[in-house]
Amino acid sequence: MCGIAPIKYSNVEHVKLLDRFSTSNKSLTGTLYLTATHLLFIDANQRETWILHHHIAAVEKLPLTTSGCPLVIQCKNFRVVHFVVPRERDCHDIYNSLLQLSRTAKYEELYAFSYNPKQNESEQAKGWQLIDLAEEYKRMGVPNDYWQLSDANRDYKICETYPRELYVPRTASKPIIVGSSKFRSKGRFPVLSYYHKDKKAAICRCSQPLSGFSARCLEDEHMLQAISKANPSNRYMYVMDTRPKLNAMANRAAGKGYENEDNYSNIRFQFVGIENIHVMRSSLQKLLEVSGTKGLSVNDFLSGLENSGWLRHIKAVLDAAVFLVKAIAVESASVLVHCSDGWDRTSQVCSLGALLLDSYYRTIKGFMVLIEKDWISFGHKFSDRCCQLDGDPKEISPVFTQFLESVWNLTEQFPQAFEYNEAFLLQIHEHVHSCQFGNFLGNCQKEREELKLKEKTYSLWPFLLDEQKKYQNPLYNPSFSPNLTLLEPNTVSFNFKFWRNMYHQFDRSMHPRQSVYDLIMDMSEQNKQLEEDIKQLEAKIKRKSGQSDVVLLKEHQQSAHPAPVMLKTPPCFKKDQPLIPLNDAVRTIEGSNTADNRYSEFMEELSKAEPAIVSLEYGVARMTC
Amino acid sequence: MEFAELIKTPRADNVVLHRPFEPAVEGTLCLTGHHLIFSSRRQDNAEELWLLHSNIDSIEKRFVGSLGTIVIKCKDLRIIQLDIPGMEECLNIASSIEALSTLDSVTLMYPFFYRPMFEIVEDGWSAFLPEKEFEFLNALTDEWRLTYINKDFSICPSYPPVVTVPKSIDDETLQKVAVFRHGGRFPVLSYYHKKNGMVMMRTSQPLTGTNGKRCKDDEKLINSTLGPGRRGYIIDTRSLSAAQQARAKGGGFGVEVYYPQWRRIHKSVERFNILQESLIKLVEACNDQSHNMDRWLSKLEASNWLTHVKEILTAGCLAAQCIDREDASVLVHGTEGTDSTLQITSLAQIILDPDCRTIRGFESLIVREWLQAGHPFQQRCAQSAYSNSKQKWEAPVFLLFLDCVWQMLHQFPCSFEFNEHFLVTLFEHAYASQFGTFLGNNENERSKLKLPQKTMSLWSWVNQPEELKNFKNPLFEANSLVIWPSVAPQSLQLWEGVFLRWNRPSKFLDEAQEEMRKIISDNRVLQEKVNYLRRKVAHMETNDEMQEDL
């Protein structure tokens, strides 16, 4: 490949895979294979563990032990694997190879450019057309009397990190747009993110103004006025600075800052205090350190959770979205949201706000649209934040993960409001980091066009849509409180829980052994099939009884000793042919099997005698399996 | 005593009732001997609240002008508020409630006055007799016998009249052993593991004292339960240092030389006021909606509640592990053998024995391991999280046990025949009930109070088919295997059904539950229908063939 030292795609045998949380070093022995895209471990039971090179966040070689050379791999999807390689030389080779393979220098070397799902060009193009943002704005009700499509950024001349197509108030003329963009960090002037048809109120987004201590810009002031005038329901508009006030003030010294209420008419200014990407990065780091501790006590877990601040940040993000939603739903006021550059916290708050306001975003397709709109098109820097290329580690931050976690919290509070389930959120998270599909590559639309992603890579969405059965929430009720398209989440602290299925997705021992959710999903799927069967059978009976009524009568008398007919296994109980085989293989650990299968598998394991695991000397019960 | 003497104002009008997450209602408040009754005057949708006085944990009153407000905190953790116009009325009502909710005589409690409106199919008082249980055991092994040595409660006041002991040990020996054990609680059989014939026994601490007294009969009894070459584990629910300290007070632990096949393991489980304080702190944390995230998490941590859950569950797992994985018998004791001991023996049985995961089996477990085994319910459950009394004997031992069961139910949602509602109901009835089941501290007291004759058993009510269906888990599928719960802190959860029940609206969660039940019952109906139709088609086809043959 990139070739400083040649990578050895060799197999190493007798490698041990240690149980991450086992105190007695329970392990599986098997063979480790290194392929161009994956690290593969096959244990003695032929169970496969696939690790995509792009998923690797860190590789660490620990000091040599008597049993071999330990190698710890931490993945971006929070999988942590601990191998012990018998020979140090092999370990060293794997270590070096993984370091090279997991650090990509150029986009073209990412998996997406070599991934080939066997689609022809037209299928590929159709896949990319699945999500059409112009269509989405139409759905919201723009353009209309107040809002129009602006061609100002058609050639990315005004703002490189914005999409070409932007919606602005009709009264905002080109000079106002240009002037305003010059007064905003990175040229990210106020544009429409979401339009609420009923309230005629808008969510707009931008970056911080270059106000310094006293600078002002008439065009920018006009721009904001145009936004507030575009809302006939309420002349006042809110400006939400999603940063803590202190941070915003500090920015003034650098010639940036926040809006001075005196200079803008009819605005109400509000800080909401979400921390910056660096705080979030170290918060997640702390969270993972705590959750990865062996033999963790409840109190260490809770105090670690507290000290990490992670749930506090999730709550802050959701609180901000609730604030925004109240302004729109209760006061019919438009809201302009910004942070520093307007691509991290702003994306979180705008997208969550829209999700709370509009039930469309709670459907599978709608959620894809939401991510395309507020995250991908508006230039959330996926490449930098997820470290797709070997770059500045200070740019990495779990901003999108926090968004998914906030959504998960909402699905917990409103189990019937979402068409999609937790697996959908986890799968999206998986692919944001996998670099297997083109959607999340790069930092902005301009970059994506330059990379010709639509020709060279595939879009994730059609693949998810194809296997949407897996992501459907069986409890979803489309008419969920019809007059209540608005969700009003309760953000009292006790509602926020540690997302075990995200951070311990691959640590099987931590999860409930039987999943109610999987069972209900299977049943609900089976119910559909059964209803089909009933229709067919009834039709068949009707046909036959038409042939001879006498027979039916006779049959009725005989039914005392019915011939046992096996219920045909409905298709949902057959193991689905995975569409994305590699990732599915990774998942077999947590559950693409039917609940029944996994259950018996687990029980077999339980019933095996494992005397070695009891360490009664210490009076400690070791919970196995 | 007449209740009328305590009720100074039996009725007040224009009272406003505030409940969590429901609009305030105006109506009439009535006090009876055992209930506080509130009924709204609205004709359309007359609302009534019936609250047992014995469910009231604490009461506060305050005044704004002549409008009095009474805040009532219940043992089931609910808090309601009543606005009562008129200072005198309010004071009278408050003092009446206070008096009625703290009656000291058991015989004045509601169960003695309650007349059931349902027909008794099976009397719960006689549904779980030790003799019946013993029949099952006797079919498996003949090494055990029932002894009636305690029939008049003279050997051990906290034991039931009938207990199971090794067949080789006669009553005379038992009598001597009882003297050597705290409170006379000599070792008895708690559980027999069919799979390998290993047993779990429970007892109280041996009275070794500072000079290491021994009792040959005790050694004989305990050693006799292990065959040659067999091992056993004595699980002491105290830390080693606590057990050593107990010697100064005449207690202690068995010395290993005298019990050569047994190994002692100390697995410390907290007790008494530490648990009570933990509950008080937890409920305080849950009830304050204004906590920011850091404060909530640190309060949750400081309550130590989940630590206790983890401790108890781990100890239960340890006992189960010794039996199932190590092929060893187990003897569990702490100090008195009426609290942590019972938590562990009962949890181990739920892990090991699928029968205990059925409704009937769980009821039987509670009767055997809690009621008959002499857990002092009346003392432990006298007050709940809002009490100010801080009596040493008050402790949520049983609630912690239920919480541990809930954790397992949460981790094995298809392996239990009962649902969460069943556990919550047991919690409520342990603290305040119209049934006599949880009155008294042991069988001795219950028989003196003549509870089976004078009160109704909770099980008589629960086991009626129409009630039973509310407690059934629709996902239940009998699982004959041992279930090992995870005790990692990431796997343990706050029991929201109890601790957040009154602190957040549950409409959306309830509706989702309802939908889930619907999917399950639809599934059943559809399956049956498809099977029926298939049979029908099959018959038609065979008939067709027969006709063709003709």
Task: Please tell me about this protein's structure.
- The complex is a heterodimer of chains A (625) and B (550).
- By secondary structure, chain A is an alpha+beta fold.
- Helix content of chain A is 41%, strand content 13%.
- Chain A has helices at residues 88-102, 111-114, 121-129, 133-140, 174-182, 218-229, 245-252, 277-291, 298-308, 310-331, 345-357, 364-377, 382-385, 399-413, 422-434, 445-450, 453-456, 460-466, 500-503, 516-547, 549-558, 581-587, 595-607; strands spanning 11-18, 27-34, 38-43, 48-52, 56-61, 69-75, 80-85, 147-150, 166-169, 191-196, 201-206, 237-241, 267-271, 334-338.
- Chain A has a seven-stranded antiparallel β-sheet. A five-stranded mixed β-sheet of chain A has the order 10-11-14-12-13, sandwiched between helices.
- In chain A, a hairpin with an 8-residue loop joins strand 1 and strand 2 (27-34).
- Chain A is globular and about 70 Å long.
- Chain B has 20 helices and 14 strands.
- Chain B has three domains: 3-103, PH-domain like (Roll); 130-504, no CATH class; 511-549.
- With 550 residues, chain B is an alpha+beta fold.
- In chain B, helix 10 packs antiparallel against helix 11.
- Chain B has a seven-stranded antiparallel β-sheet with strand order 4-3-2-1-7-6-5, covered by helices on one side.
- Chains A and B meet through helix 9, helix 10, helix 20, helix 21 and helix 23 of A and strand 13, helix 8, helix 9 and helix 20 of B.
